[in-house]
């Protein structure tokens, strides 16, 4: 594995954006056609960034930022010699064309990590997102399920909160369920205090889950081509 930098983009597209996306598909297509007719757009790479991971979800409140932050830290811990950056961006809102490769902007094609929770509503938008990325031929690294289960602090008994819908969705889509992150109030506490749980409690179940996720993302990135600059 030979990457010097990973840019991890957090993007947030709210339901609003999804609706907009659906409503304006033909609009996008005609815009894309128009721009394509001027000649093929250049896919611009970001100087110094070899690989990009997009942490995406179709819905707010599923722990996307927490996942991105802890994943970034885990990737750095796993690859101390490499530089990991974190970019908070909204690639669905005002900048759909960017994703559609219709303008000269950095194109996020390296790999998407979908973040969801197991509730039905979240799974539905995750499915839409996954189908969209597959249509755009953006490789989907896998799905991360937050609030997967709770672990009893007394007996460590693990209890599933909403069933196994995420697993079913992943297998229907042919996408790996990369990691199931248990619900723990500590995650929120540490995120709010500016200390990712991977650093604050490195041996906790959550931290270990993020580190395993980081390893799986690294394995995926090792199979992907890198920007040459
Ligand atoms: Zn118990």
TrEMBL record:
GO MF terms, alphabetically ordered: 4 iron, 4 sulfur cluster binding; ATP binding
UniProt keyword Nucleotide-binding, yes or no: yes
Coiled coil ranges: none
Keyword Cytoplasm in annotation: no
UniProt GO BP: iron-sulfur cluster assembly; mitochondrial respiratory chain complex I assembly
Cellular component, GO, one term: mitochondrion
InterPro entries to which the protein is assigned, alphabetical: NUBPL-like, P-loop_NTPase, YlxH/NBP35
Keywords: ATP-binding, Nucleotide-binding
Highest taxon listed in the record's lineage: Eukaryota
Name under which the protein is recorded: Iron-sulfur protein NUBPL
Native source species: Gryllus longicercus
Lineage: Eukaryota, Metazoa, Ecdysozoa, Arthropoda, Hexapoda
């Amino acid at each position: 594995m030979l990457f010097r930098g990973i840019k991890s983009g957090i993007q947030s597209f709210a339901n609003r954006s999804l609706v907009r996306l659906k409503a304006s598909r033909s609009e996008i297509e005609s815009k894309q056609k128009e721009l394509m007719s001027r000649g093929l757009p250049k896919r611009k790479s970001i100087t110094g960034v070899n690989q990009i991971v997009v942490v995406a979800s179709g819905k707010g409140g599923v722990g996307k930022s927490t996942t991105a932050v802890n994943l970034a830290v885990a990737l750095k811990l796993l690859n101390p010699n490499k530089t990991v950056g974190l970019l908070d961006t909204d690639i669905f809102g005002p900048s759909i064309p960017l994703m559609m490769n219709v303008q000269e902007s950095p194109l996020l094609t390296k790999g998407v990590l979908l973040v969801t929770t197991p509730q039905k509503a979240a799974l539905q938008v995750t499915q839409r997102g996954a189908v969209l990325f597959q249509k755009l031929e953006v490789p989907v690294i896998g799905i991360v399920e937050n609030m997967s289960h709770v672990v009893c602090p007394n007996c460590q008994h693990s209890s599933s909160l909403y069933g196994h819908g995420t697993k079913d969705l992943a297998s229907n889509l042919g996408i790996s369920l990369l990691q199931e992150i248990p619900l723990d109030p500590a995650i929120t506490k540490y995120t709010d205090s500016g200390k990712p749980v991977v650093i604050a409690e490195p041996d906790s179940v959550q931290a270990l889950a993020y580190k395993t996720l980081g390893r799986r993302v690294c394995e995926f990135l090792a199979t992907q081509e890198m920007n040459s600059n």
